[in-house]
Specification:
6-stranded mixed beta sheet
Length: about 375
């Protein structure tokens, strides 16, 4: 057997080191959500690295098979060790859908959408009606959960017309505005739980609505949330967007400190909000529960893990396919909007809308009640 040249040995060692660093990063990011950001704030930053580390490992895995196959074991082991979070980020479900012969009364759809105060966020829009309300009407979901809804009345500036409002109220006879700017619109009878959004954490800002729906005789507790944002300013986002164009090292360092600091602060505040949400679910939830909205956090985060401890599961990993993102502004491509459920209903499908009237994309999920569900 021929001996490898010194240069090849050095190259192999470097390749192995890069694989091990990327693998360790994925494992760390995948389990960062196990730690409360209130105690370890940096974990709230690290968890956002899962998609980046996973993408890097997939690229490395391909290169390993070309350069030195033995090193391919490192990314494989890292991906397997991080599998629950990896699947949450990039599920590969095939063959999902409503089972054949399911009666229509056992099926209902839910749309969640951060509507950015229904401001038109697409340059060049020249329509004469509000595009967000038009989109909601076209989807015709049975239940609509909205975040950052500041107005739902006749408004010339936002192009909200009387015809649109009449259509909304005819389609959704039950509309409740909760908190500061969250709302639910429902075809089913609904009761407001009047939740207090104050988590007790200084500087914490979250919006939360809780409701009980009667869906064809089934009791369903619904929680519509808008948790603490990163509080990134427009200049922060633009600086991140143009990161590669920063000319001085001190600019990059300053931006890094600013972004990391804001992400850590937001994660700490969301930890308190997550605990408050869990208490409400414990008290009001009952058997059948859906939690949805803008979580401002990625798969594997502390909030989603706390909800998982209550038996709530994410819909996207259950019936979705492939990676996606729901925030679409300034290349901050993260899936921070989520739908979770528990009880005697099952998700049959989920899709992401592609309209860009907001800085978020909407999510639309289909649920089916179990056969043996008894009326409550």
């Amino acid at each position: 057997m021929s001996r490898l040249s010194p240069w090849r040995q050095i190259a192999n060692a470097l390749v192995l080191a890069v694989n091990m660093i990327a693998g360790a990063a994925l494992v760390l990011a995948s389990y960062a959500g196990e730690f409360s950001p209130a105690e370890r704030p940096m974990m709230g930053v690290v968890v956002l690295g899962v998609p980046i580390a996973l993408a890097a490992l997939v690229v490395l895995l391909i290169l390993d098979f070309v350069w030195w196959r033995k090193t391919a074991l490192v990314p494989i082991v890292a991906i397997v060790a991080s599998w629950p979070t990896v699947w949450s980020v990039c599920p590969l479900n095939i063959g999902t859908g409503i089972p054949g012969g399911t009666p229509p009364e056992r099926v209902f759809t839910l749309l969640t959408y951060n509507v950015l105060s229904m401001r038109d966020n697409t340059a060049g829009y020249s329509g004469d009606v509000n595009p967000t309300l038009s989109y909601i009407l076209r989807q015709d979901a049975d239940v609509v959960c909205l975040q950052e809804l500041s107005v739902l009345n006749l408004n010339k500036k936002l192009k909200i017309t009387q015809a649109q409002l009449d259509s909304i109220h005819a389609r959704y006879p039950y509309i409740i505005l909760s908190g500061t700017a969250v709302a639910v619109m429902s075809k089913y009878p609904i009761e407001n739980l009047h939740l207090d959004s104050n988590s007790g954490v200084k500087g914490s800002r979250c919006d939360m609505g809780g409701y009980v729906l009667n869906v064809e005789g089934h009791r369903l507790a619904l929680f519509n949330v808008h948790l603490q944002s990163f509080k990134l300013t427009r200049s922060d986002k633009e600086a991140y967007d143009g990161l590669t164009h920063l000319r001085h090292e001190e600019d990059i360092n300053e931006l890094g400190h600013t972004l990391v600091g804001k992400i850590k602060t937001a994660a700490v505040r969301r930890a308190g909000q997550a605990q408050m949400l869990c208490r409400y679910i414990d008290y009001y939830g009952g058997e059948n529960v859906i939690v949805t909205g803008d979580f401002n956090d990625a798969p594997g985060c502390y909030t989603l893990r706390q909800l998982a401890d209550l038996g709530l599961r994410e819909v996207w990993p259950e019936v979705g396919f492939g990676p996606t993102w729901t925030y679409n502004d300034h290349r901050l491509y993260f899936r921070i909007d989520h739908i979770l459920w528990r009880g005697r209903l099952r998700p049959a499908g989920i899709r992401r809308g592609n309209v860009r009237w907001s800085d978020h994309y909407p999510l639309i999920a289909t649920f089916v009640w179990d056969n043996d569900e008894s009326n409550q």
